[in-house]
Backbone:
């Protein structure tokens, strides 16, 4: 058994833009994910961060094969799931489960939470005995910190944080190897976020889960993840161990992203902030070569001509950039003097 | 601080909404004031009443059948009793608001420019062309590229950050004295959020404007606020200068908030200062339970069902908002003795869990 659970190679997803009703003509494509490769080791947590529109949720959906990729490979446990069909795909789905962002729309309001959590068993025809199923569901409810007696209640009777726990219990029902959490706490209040984050960390170490954790909040990702991949406009610009990446960001975009995070420390007030100007360009017409060159303070001619590739760096991460940040520049960006 | 009358003074504001299920006590006797050139941050979770309080300041809860009492003084006039036509003159002129969601706050069927010029012409006797020039100038101010062309765009043609900028331009177009910003950056990405906060700070300096910023994000208030008010279940539980909230917080709810957010360093805030070179991941300490119903708020101190330092007597009466011993500007509503609170926080910021802190300090034997 390889120690890599997930291997993604040159994954591409274009969404066509069409015109016309009967005779649809393709007039362009949203390049949501444009050639990304990464691995996830067994038992580790990989964080995907980036701004809205960078393709992180599309990546999650591709990993679950809720979307069919335009090209590329996704090998889970050595098997390329992009080519699977019918019963094979259904069987593969048992191994991967997803936790969604919105705890309100991801639970069917007409079903009791007992039947919501038991649904994976019905789909896969497992635990057909009624009592057996109920016992297992109640066990799961206990695992995620819900009162098992609330088996027969409906989702509206629960608060946001509890609903997210229901979502986690459902995802754990089939004992998947891979759990994909897409912004699992961004819809929750601050005091509740910590409860759900702690639950996920705890479950991961107890059950040996592999977790792909997607969030826009860099502090949450730092807290949760062993390794972090930073995405910008459908590409991975930097990937590496969380400690290395946050301590010494090498890609100018990673640096800018970290510098923009508000920090709970009033002593940093009044410092001059180096801000990125402008917005993320449209993924329909991404900038040529390095996609960050239109906003990058270090960009030169080469950045719009030659696309940089991810390269191993001695600081411990892999980054795709012609003009990597030096140590002094990273510090100057206001990335605090750690280490 | 001067003895002069503050620019905006809210006194004992109460806002109740009668509903089918009972009366929602959204805001329960809160008071605060704002001075020119200063920024007040109001922090709280959803349902803490922070948005309702500011909507009420602008008279925007009147039509929703809210029962309002208390006083809101703005330049000597009480906005609570002010007739609607007088209030309309002030709203959008001297008193302006930036809403959280720019997509629903901008009208989708009107061009951005039309909405901006309307804001000018509602309050100023100027020609259409003058108003349009002003709108273009303002859009340029807030950093919209090529404003003379983009002014004729519809809101959907703007990106999220640009819409938020357009909203800020609209709020600032008449150079208000007070700007109320309700979660102005919550819907935005971090890089755009940093741009918007920097923009608000710059405009505040230029116009000597008072800002009330309402948010759940402790990082945002740490960056911009001079003073911070923490709200819980419709009440103010703590209020102090910004750095005091982060270095010497007094209320258990504030502690809970600080200990439940991860920071970029990967440590919870309380441990940040003691950072010793190595970065290790610390457990977050969440606040147990969830925010209470505002129809039947818990008796006594509203925070008591979630408070680790709870004593039975805390559920009997409501704690008053009182100054702490060494700082008259720092007020807190908590029954725990102040020396005990200081010792508890000293332990918590070293990384102790509330339970460990209680054992070390021995709180709970009397209180």
Residues:
């Amino acid at each position: 058994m390889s120690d890599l659970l997930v291997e993604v190679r040159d994954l591409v997803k274009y969404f066509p833009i069409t015109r016309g009703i009967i005779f649809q003509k393709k007039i362009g494509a949203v390049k949501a994910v444009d050639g990304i490769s990464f691995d996830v080791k067994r038992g580790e947590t990989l964080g995907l961060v980036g701004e809205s529109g960078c393709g992180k949720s599309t990546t999650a959906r591709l990993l679950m094969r809720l979307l069919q990729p335009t090209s590329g490979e996704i090998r889970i446990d050595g098997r390329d799931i992009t080519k699977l069909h019918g019963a094979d795909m259904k069987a593969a789905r048992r191994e991967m489960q997803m936790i969604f962002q919105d705890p309100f729309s991801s639970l069917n309001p007409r079903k009791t939470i007992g039947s919501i959590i038991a649904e994976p068993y019905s789909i896969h025809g497992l635990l057909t005995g009624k009592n057996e199923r109920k016992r297992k569901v109640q066990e799961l409810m206990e695992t995620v910190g819900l009162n098992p007696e609330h088996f027969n209640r409906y989702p509206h009777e629960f608060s946001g944080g509890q609903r997210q726990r229901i979502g986690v219990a459902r995802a754990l029902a089939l004992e998947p190897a891979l759990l994909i959490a897409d912004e699992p706490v961004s819809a929750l209040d601050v005091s509740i976020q910590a409860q759900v984050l702690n639950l996920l960390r705890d479950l991961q170490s107890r059950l040996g889960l592999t977790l792909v954790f997607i969030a826009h909040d860099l502090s949450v990702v730092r807290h949760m993840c062993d390794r972090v991949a930073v995405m910008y406009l459908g590409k991975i610009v930097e990937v590496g161990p969380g400690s290395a990446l946050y301590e010494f960001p090498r890609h100018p975009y990673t640096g800018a992203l970290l510098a923009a995070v508000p920090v709970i420390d009033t002593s940093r007030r009044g410092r001059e902030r180096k801000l990125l100007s402008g917005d993320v360009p449209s993924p329909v017409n991404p900038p040529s070569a390095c996609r960050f060159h239109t906003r990058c303070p270090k960009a030169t001619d080469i950045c719009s001509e030659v696309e940089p590739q991810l390269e191993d760096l001695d600081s411990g991460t892999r980054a795709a950039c012609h003009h990597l940040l030096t140590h002094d520049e990273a510090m100057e960006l206001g990335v605090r003097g750690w280490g | 601080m001067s003895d002069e009358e503050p620019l905006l003074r809210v006194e004992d504001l109460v806002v109740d909404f009668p509903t089918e299920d009972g009366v929602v006590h959204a805001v329960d006797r809160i008071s605060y004031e704002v001075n020119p050139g200063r920024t007040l941050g109001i922090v709280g979770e959803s349902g803490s009443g922070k948005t309702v309080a500011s909507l009420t300041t602008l008279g925007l809860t009147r039509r929703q059948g809210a029962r309002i009492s208390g006083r809101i003084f703005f330049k000597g006039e009480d906005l609570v009793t002010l007739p609607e036509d007088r209030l309309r003159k002030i709203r959008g002129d001297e008193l302006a608001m930036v809403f959280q969601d720019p997509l629903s706050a901008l009208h989708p069927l009107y061009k951005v420019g039309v909405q901006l010029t309307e804001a000018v012409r509602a309050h100023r006797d100027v020609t259409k062309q003058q108003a349009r020039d002003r709108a273009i100038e303002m859009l340029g101010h807030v950093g919209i590229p090529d404003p003379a062309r983009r002014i004729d765009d519809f809101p959907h043609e703007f990106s999220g950050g640009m819409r938020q900028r357009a909203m800020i331009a609209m709020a600032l177009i008449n150079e208000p004295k007070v700007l109320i910003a309700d979660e102005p950056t919550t819907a935005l990405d971090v890089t755009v959020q940093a741009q918007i906060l920097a923009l608000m700070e710059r405009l505040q300096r230029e116009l000597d404007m008072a800002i009330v910023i309402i948010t759940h994000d402790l990082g945002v208030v740490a960056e911009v606020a001079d003073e911070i008010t923490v709200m819980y279940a419709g009440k103010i539980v703590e209020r102090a200068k910004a750095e005091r909230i982060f270095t010497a917080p007094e209320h258990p709810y504030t502690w809970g908030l600080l200990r439940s957010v991860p920071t970029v360093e990967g440590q919870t805030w309380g441990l940040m200062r003691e950072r010793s070179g190595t970065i290790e991941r610390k457990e977050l300490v969440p606040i147990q339970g969830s925010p209470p119903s505002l129809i039947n708020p818990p008796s006594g101190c509203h925070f008591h069902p979630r408070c680790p330092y709870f004593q039975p007597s805390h559920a009997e009466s409501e704690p008053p908002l009182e100054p702490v011993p060494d700082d008259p500007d720092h007020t807190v509503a908590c029954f725990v003795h102040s020396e005990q609170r200081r010792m508890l926080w000293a332990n918590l910021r070293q990384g102790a869990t509330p339970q460990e802190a209680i054992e070390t300090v021995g709180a709970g034997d009397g209180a």
